[in-house]
Amino acid sequence: MFSTAFLDLPPLQGASGTVTLPGSKSISNRVLLLSALCQGTTVVHDLLDSDDTRVMLAALRQLGCGVDVQGTTVTITGLGGQLKHHDAIEFFMGNAGTAMRPLTAALAVLGGDFTLKGVPRMHERPIGDLVDALRLLGCSIDYLGNDGFPPLHIGQPSLKVDAPIQVRGDVSSQFLTALLMALPLAAKTHDIVIDVVGELISKPYIDITLNLLARYGIAVKRDGWQRFTIPQGCSYQSPGTIHVEADASSASYFIALGAIAEGEGIRIQGVGADSIQGDIRFMDAAAQMGAKITSGPNWLEINQGAWPLKGITLDCNHIPDAAMTLAVMALYADGPTTLRNIASWRVKETDRIVAMATECRKLGASVEEGPDWITVHPLPKDGWKAASIHTYDDHRVAMCFSLAAFNADKVTVRIEDPKCVAKTFPDYFEALFSVAHANTQDIPVICIDGPTASGKGTLASRVAQALGYHYLDSGALYRVTAYAALKAGLSLEANDEARIADLARTLPVRFEGDTVWLGSEDVSDAIRTEQAGMNASKVSVLPAVRTALVALQHSFQRLPGLLADGRDMGTVIFPNAPLKVFLTASAAQRAERRHKQLISKGISTTLDSLRADLEARDARDSSRSVAPLKAAQDAYQLDNSSLSIEASVDQVLTWWQAKQPF
């Protein structure tokens, strides 16, 4: 998962391949709570691992449920409708509406001494209609801040179930879902009737709830969308095992990707047209705009069809979350697109109507908005603007606007706070980059070259981490090549040059901070010995090996970008890199750094000998006939003799930021 302050998406050209989606958030949190209310054990397969599900799992542990997490399989030992702990408990619900609303209802019916709170935005998300309905039932709920909003305190109820309970349906379907999931706890002697006041929005989400309740033994009677009856004497029954469908809302981004990006199409694994999730109907809207979609059991395939896409007018009440993706697809259409009946956008993780309008305008689009609608006009070629997209701590805003990187004008799109996608799809950007492709020259590279012991490796890995870029330690490649050759039984002499070169071309090496991996083997320590350095020198003089490693180094230029360090990155390997830094430090300072490193490893040496060795190596490296050590003509010079690593990182990031169009 990207944890950087921002993520710059270079111009993306096309996409093809297969994406396996994570589990549905809506299904995951419903299943967790229903499993907790059952007697016995339920094994949940393919559970979404995200911020919202972690919030729910933490709450269930606090209540005394057994929770055993093994990857995406979670075993829940339920409460049987009875609380095990009666002490005061405070729950932190983050910004997880699918956890906050149903848990509030369940705890209010069970009764106790509970406090539920969340992040500041959660305290701005309305819950008053649910609280009003629960108070009609006799539940004890008090507001600890503003009336109608969390945080809440829940006490002991005096339940009365002989009259219908009314709840508004036009703000959030989660209020009705919460009641439907919690009220079987109270239906011991009477049927419980829930009447919906006003039009029920997001009906497909209620379908998910009813479908899952049936799986857990609760057969709710539905009269249209206005009255729901929970039968007397019903009780939760564990299904034993249950599988969570992949998230249909998350599928919307890749359905859209297949519609707007050139390529051989996108295959989505984990969800199909027969999904119980209402957001799967996004595929119908995408097809109206021109996408070619085929489906089978648990899969979808999407290809570009009509181009440009077709502008549409659509009532989106049935796909409120997925409809956000249509607003970005509208930028690629042949006319305006109007999305109606989306008032619920205003009470989500942020006011999504305002957010989508504001960020589309940053890209250059003309947008109109109203209380429950938005109209987005398409962007012509030469109309796109590079933009830094504010994401409002809203995962769906971040994922939607990543699609804007597929634009006709080859402008860069910055996604601020990319880690917000962890709410539902922690690996979203990794999944996007696994199928998206760009022209190589559009993938940014930052080169940091410099002499031995200048600290370029530490600096480069830190800058790579700050930007979310891949990292290449070119010097280590020769050490790893020698290590792999010896492990394969080869000599490091000219007679094995061709075989070493063949090995080097497909070397499965990757760099993660200070760790160097050869396949699944951590070779960090093995390649940093004096002998490993001598072995690297032997293979570095073999022309075929050098040629093979140049090709390998070029292969590291992958989305979203690359940070490469070495002695010839900016002069030979990536001469067109947009930022080159030549890092220097005095021989005395470098000797002192190396001395500290060696002493910490128990290796005896002296400062004078280290300094002499470094000066001799500088002379050799600078006078090499092939790729000598020197600064590229357009490189920034950075002497870090008296700078901290933090100051050096800040300087490189400042130079990089100055080259961005935002």
Mean pLDDT over the residues = 94
CATH class of the largest domain: Alpha Beta
CATH superfamily of the largest domain: Enolpyruvate transferase domain
The end-to-end distance, rounded to whole angstroms, is 24 Å
Share of helical residues: 25-40%
Strand order of the largest sheet: 16-17-15-2-24
- Tally of contiguous helical segments: 21
Structural class: alpha/beta
Number of strands: 32
**Largest sheet, described in full?**
5 strands, mixed
Work out the radius of gyration.
29 Å
In CATH, the architecture of the largest domain is Alpha-beta prism
β-sheet strand percentage: 15-25%
CATH topology of the largest domain: UDP-n-acetylglucosamine1-carboxyvinyl-transferase, Chain
Poorly predicted runs are none
User: Oligomeric form of this entry?
Assistant: single chain
Name the shape in a single word. elongated
For the record, the count of structural domains works out to 3
What does this 3D model show about the protein?
With 662 residues, the protein is an alpha/beta fold. It folds into three domains: 6-22 and 246-438, Alpha-beta prism (UDP-n-acetylglucosamine1-carboxyvinyl-transferase, Chain); 25-243, Alpha-beta prism (UDP-n-acetylglucosamine1-carboxyvinyl-transferase, Chain), CATH 3.65.10.10; 441-658, Rossmann fold. Helices cover 35% and strands 21% of the residues. The chain has a five-stranded mixed β-sheet with strand order 16-17-15-2-24. α3 (97-110) runs parallel beside α5. The longest helix has 16 residues, at 607-622. The chain is elongated.
